[in-house]
Amino acid sequence: MNPSTGGRLLASAAALGIYEKALAGADWAARCSAAAAAGYGFIELSVDDSPQKLARLNWSSTEQHRMRQTAAAAGVRIGTIVLSAHRTYPWGAADDATREIADQLASRAIDLAAGLGADRVQLAGYFSFEGPRHDHARDCYIEGVRRAARLAEHRGVRLAIENMDGTDVLSATDATDLIREIDRDVVRLYPDVGNFAGNGLDAAAELRVALPLADAVQFKDARLGEFRRVPFGDGLVDWPAVFRELSNAAWRGPASIEMWNDDGDHAMAADALDWLRSTPSTAA
């Protein structure tokens, strides 16, 4: 057994990121410093449906520049805009008004990513999460992503679709079929190994299918039907097998860690990365 396989793979990744909600700190300067001190190179900025997070889509160029400077001063950058607000305002909604809001959110998230120097906007693989569903939800989602892809291509930003928890894009095959049907070079996958496991799938086997179309890989742990706040090592993800798949694929792309720091634990981000770095490639 080689106890440093996880460490070698993470060291060879193009960049290591951490989800904003995993960081403790009263302000952005503190959060960026915490991310850098823990060993991360980029932060994933949340745009959920809360008024505070949605307001980020209206940041002026001055505010965007200030955010970039704050991150750079700490030794990190904003690498991803996580557009989870589409959970509430999905492209696959039954009504035109909601789909128009989904378009507006995507457009502004792409502009924000470009302004912050982020590489990608992460899109949720929900066709329609809340409200009534209809037979054409998937088709509406595909057309929405294609519209966003035109803007993303113009702004030099990629779109990365995440496999989700419980509905619509669940498996790697769901995701790869969707990407091929969307058929836009700037649209890739953002496979989340925890969501695979939480849906009762073999995370490593699913990752093997997803990696050829992946823009980045997301790490979290999960239990069956429990997709959040599961400590690393306490869930169903077979981490040695996941790292073995990454090694076999010679993965050198970005990787990120998704967690929720509800208690302001200043050690959480560093502890998670240390745990993953100690993961062997084979079970004990």
Automatic annotation (TrEMBL):
Record keyword Lipid metabolism present: no
Gene3D superfamilies linked to this entry: Divalent-metal-dependent TIM barrel enzymes
Keyword Isomerase applies: yes
InterPro entries recorded: IolE/XylAMocC-like, Xyl_isomerase-like_sf, Xyl_isomerase-like_TIM-brl
GO molecular function: isomerase activity
Xylose isomerase-like TIM barrel domain mapped to chain residues: 33-278
Transmembrane segments: none
Keywords assigned: Carbohydrate metabolism, Isomerase
Lineage: superkingdom: Bacteria
A Pfam family annotated for this UniProt entry: AP_endonuc_2
Name the record gives this protein: Hexulose-6-phosphate isomerase
